[in-house]
Amino acid sequence: MSSELAHKIREIREVETSGRGEFSQLIGIAKKTLEGIEQTGRVPKGDLLEAVCQQWPKYTLWLMTGQTNEPCGQVSPEIERARRMLKQTGTGTN
Once rounded to an integer, what is the mean pLDDT over residues 60-84? Predict the structure, then answer.
C-alpha cells in the first residue's frame, strides 16, 4: 500500500504541477519530504494526504480507494490527462 500511495501522489503531481517544488509549495510541505515519499515509497502521513485532497478534491476517491466516479467529478490523473489532451486537439465535449 505504501508504494501505491506514493505512486498516486506522483501521478497527481505530474498532471497538476510543473514539478516537485510547485507541488510542495501548494500543499505546504518540504520538497525533501515529497522526494522521500516518491523515491522510497514511504507512506505519506495523513496531513499530507489531506492537503492533496483539499488542493485537488477531484482525486480524493481515486487517491484513497483507486476508484473513480466521473459523474460526481471524481477522476484519476489518467482521466484528467485524457480530458486535457482532448481539449487541446479540439475533440473534447466540454
Answer: 97
